[in-house]
Fold this protein.
Amino acid sequence: MLEGKFFSSIDPTFMLITHSSPTILFIGGHDPTGGAGIQADIETAVAHHCRAYSLVTCLTAQSTQNVQRLYPQDRCDFLQQADVLLADVNPDWVKIGLMGDVDIALAIADILAELNKPVVLDPVLAAGGGRELAGPALVRVMNQRLLPFVDLLTPNQAEARRLTGRQKPQPAVERLLDQGCGYVMLTGADESAGSQVMNTLYSQTEDPYHLTCPKLPDVYHGSGCTLASACACQLAQHQTMKEAVQAAQHFTWRSLETAEKTGQGQHLPNRRFI
Ligand code: PLP
């Protein structure tokens, strides 16, 4: 038996498992540019001195200009990878990004039901370059099966409209909170006209909490992943929700302020400044 051999060959003191860094399970897609997706999650976790576990939902063919194609994992393979990992480790928080297809989204719902850990969900419905990343069936599964598990949802304006079918921000947020999300941070960068970007944190019990920052001049790839992952890192470090979103917004802004144009499209965040 493989396990028996492995464990008998290691120093018994190693078996005293301790971990001091907060741990986050990132569930998302792989972006070969490194701007978005799992690589963005891991870079953000490292910058926050958190440990990242990762389950990859799909590979993608993409550049800094746009996403060309998604290659979702087989549902059974994905579930087996989750089973093996989660039989061993016990993450403090879960952060979910691009899911890839309905089967994987349903598998994620099963994992969350069993794991019973707090969740940040970035509902990635379209790429900044314009490519749709979630069709109507996946939007339905997100609404019905995933939102009830979510402690913090981080939609932009367009995602809030598509998730709820409601055109105005306030009714859309009310609907998302009614679906079971603890908090919704509605981000504003995708549709801000002036010199400031405003993100707002909503819940059913507290007044809306507005956060503003100066609008930066370029177009960025992976800003939403960075923000949601930074929120998960802050929350895993026991910050309150307001503290977490404020610190995460600051981290994201700095990563965009020092972003680099490495290809012919969007700038890539720099998450190595801490
Ligand atoms: N690819 C992957 C794997 C992602 O997770 C995301 C966003 O979360 C994107 C592409 C799109 O990123 P953006 O909207 O910043 O272009």
The chain has nine helices and nine strands.
